[in-house]
Amino acid sequence: MKKTGQPKYRRILLKLSGEALGGGSGVGISPEAVHDMARQIKEVRDLGVQVVLVIGGGNIFRGLAGSERGIERATGDYMGMLATVINSLALQDALEKMGVETRVQSAIAMPQVAESFIRRRAVRHLEKGRVVIFGGGTGNPFFSTDTAAALRANEVGADVILKATKVDGIYDSDPKKNRNAKRYTHITYLDALQQQLKVMDSTAFSLCLDNKMPIVVFDFFHPHNLRRVVMGENIGTLVTA
What we know:
By secondary structure, this protein is an alpha/beta fold.
């Protein structure tokens, strides 16, 4: 049993959507939104928690949407991966301006702007108290940043995936359409699959299921919620075996 006041998790992977960097519009990069994110991340890093980040690229370009408009799917996915690196650099800049040492590692080699992903190096950065941001998805088309988050969380030995959303957890139906929708505080992987609750895409979810990686889905945009989750408060929905 952890002492009161001690973080519940030692090493976390925080999954952020690209749209979150766009602020209210969800498009482009909002300096205010990025600053708010950085402040919450610094808050938990200052508790001694090791923080890994995976960011989407939907605020700039989404490969699947591009393919629906005529761009070849693999090409569109590579474009989306490059968008995630742009977002990673924006968040790195905000964090370092707050005095938080940060490293961006990309699954696509671009040594002028980011380190290449090397698992052992990433772990060493974490041990030194640096925040590590993984850009470029998995480096492969046809895989989402959710899958990248599940893969990297397992590779670096994270205790949990914290999936940042704009809703306060997982519901049995859309709370925007159903005022009586029930929010789960805890649900198993299998129940989430059987009820077709869109926690993550199926590939990412299978990785978490197979490796017993817990997921917490929570509202990142309520002040200090990231800290509250890390401290073990009953925020959002916990998905476990």
